[in-house]
Amino acid sequence: MRLRLLWHAIRYLLVGLPSAMATLLFVPLLALGLLSTGVGLGVVVLPRIVMGLRLWAEWHRRRAAALVNATISARQARLRQGIRAQWRQLLDDPEIRRDLRWIVRHIATGFPAGLVALMVVGMAVSSVIVAPFWWAFPVDEALTILAFPVTTWWQAIALGVPQLAAALALGWWVLPGLARLHARSCLAALEPSPVEQLAQRVGELTESRAGVLDAHGAELRRIERDLHDGTQAKLVAIAMRLGVAREMLNEDAGPLARLLSEAHESTEEAMTELRQVIRTMYPPILADRGLKGAVSAVAAGAGVPVEVSTDDLGRVPAAVEAAAYFIVAETITNVTRHSGATRATVRLSRRRDVLLIEVGDDGRGGIDESRGTGVAGIRKRAAAFDGRVQVHSPAGGPTTITVELPCAS
């Protein structure tokens, strides 16, 4: 097992020495590519040099991972279509900055590590293969072992054996650790830092959350449609039949009439409760009129005049739309009941991947969330989407509540 590790380490380090020399060539190539952008040639050539560097670094990355038994994922080494897209890739891709960082580290560590391996192998080869042929060297250029000239068999044995022992000891104890150290250095240069990994993970979670929101919104719409078109329609039909049956019975039908009456009333109550469930789950008005129309309907039914203004919101996931609708409805309800305002405003806008909701009023202000003013419920709805709520409500007013809901899709 140890001999296998030693063999892999020697092979890894000896290959690393000429590869470090070859990597050094990328420094003038990159410099020339960058300087030639002024005459137009580098605009085309530099991205291809960078992708060549990516392939070269990726080969070393796989070698390093194989040596230390690390699991790595393949990196993209393909240029985009179009010169502008390629330069945007050069400027935005963090992997390119890691490749440039790897050049410096590989040159700085590959040369000395490879020279140490070459020295150890040279010592062993000199002791085992060259020393027995000491007699073949000219007298004035005698073979030298451990800085001493070899002119007899006794000198060849006395000097060759300690040199071989030193080479074996260095190889046995130093080279495997040196190779692993170089491999980990290579992986550290080409792998994302903990901060970059965290940012990448946050991006992945944001993307997966967008997919979950889309699926959740689609499921809400499906359930709402099934309840509205299926269950509710059946309840309506049952209520109508029960109503007709009540009309057809005589007043002296006794218990049967009473049971039909109770069944009819219970069915109507069930329909009322079902409509309430549908409205709280996914308001039908959102499916019919969209977020803008739904918010306008809420404003129209408020107890105070409400001015609504909306920008182009683009595509908003259904779950975020529902949350925005309920946030506006709850805020307007709070304004009507508690603020003493004579007018209110609602503004919906979008800043990149964030839906911005601003609700203001000219009421008395002084919102105290510890008294259960309804803001806590708004914060919970926003927190479910990793959103933020800001409340500005000085005593005497006015009050402004700003809600930010991420809506990347």
Automatic annotation (TrEMBL):
Residues 322-407 form the Histidine kinase/HSP90-like ATPase domain. Residues 12-184 form the Putative sensor domain. It is an enzyme of class 2 (transferase). Residues 219-284 form the Signal transduction histidine kinase subgroup 3 dimerisation and phosphoacceptor domain. It catalyses: ATP + protein L-histidine = ADP + protein N-phospho-L-histidine. The chain crosses the membrane at residues 12-32, 38-57, 107-133, 153-175. GO terms for cellular component: membrane. Keywords: ATP-binding, Kinase, Membrane, Nucleotide-binding, Phosphoprotein, Transferase, Transmembrane, Transmembrane helix, Two-component regulatory system. InterPro entries: HATPase_C_sf, HATPase_dom, Put_sensor_dom, Sensor_HK_TwoCompSys, Sig_transdc_His_kin_sub3_dim/P. GO terms for molecular function: ATP binding; phosphorelay sensor kinase activity; protein dimerization activity. Its EC number is 2.7.13.3. This is histidine kinase. It comes from Nonomuraea jiangxiensis.
